[in-house]
């Protein structure tokens, strides 16, 4: 396969996730107002937790794409809204880690680029992680 014919792909957080986080922040404040009974500490803690949750949701709204791939390599989200470009030769290992604890299985996509390790979960990419790992491996192989 010609490396230049590789389709560019991108993976993003599910659209429903930031909405759920914002709803959770509102519910948290509502419950605090309902049950705090004038306790300023409880209201303050609930407000702080809700602000954190709303900030997390804002990040998902401002920068929803977490991973992109093209013929030259991949780009991963760095910080709040920046990008880090990794050319294919810099990518050493693409692996899917599965861990089972207390009956629950957690999957993590690991992209090892030597000096940096990038981890993605199911809700970072809105796709089955094994399919993402396979697409990345195929593109890396095709790129040479």
Describe the structure.
It is built from 4 helices and 7 strands; from the N terminus they run βααββββββαα. The chain is α+β, with helices and mostly antiparallel strands and 144 residues long. The protein folds into 2 domains: 3-12 and 65-143, Roll (PH-domain like); 16-62. The strands form 2 sheets. Strands 1-2-3-4 form a 4-stranded antiparallel beta sheet. Helix 1 (16-35) runs antiparallel to helix 2 (40-62). The radius of gyration is 19 Å and the shape is elongated.
Could you give a short description of this structure?
The protein is α+β, with helices and mostly antiparallel strands. The protein has helices spanning 16-35, 40-62, 122-125, 129-143; strands at residues 9-12, 65-69, 73-78, 82-87, 93-101, 104-112, 117-120.
- Reading side by side through the largest sheet, how are the strands ordered? 1-2-3-4
Q: Which radius of gyration do the C-alpha atoms yield?
A: 19 Å
Shape: elongated
pLDDT averaged residue by residue:
91
Specify the CATH class of the largest domain: Mainly Beta
* Order of helical and strand elements: EHHEEEEEEHH
- Overall CATH architecture of the largest domain: Roll
**Helix/strand/pairing class, anyone?**
alpha+beta
Extended strand count: 7
CATH level 3 topology of the largest domain: PH-domain like
**Cα end-to-end separation:** 10 Å
Give me the number of helical elements: 4
Largest sheet, strands/sense/barrel? 4 strands, antiparallel
Proportion of helical residues: 40-55%
**Which segments are poorly predicted (pLDDT under 50) over 5 or more consecutive residues?**
none
What number of domains?
2
Proportion of residues in extended strands? 25-35%
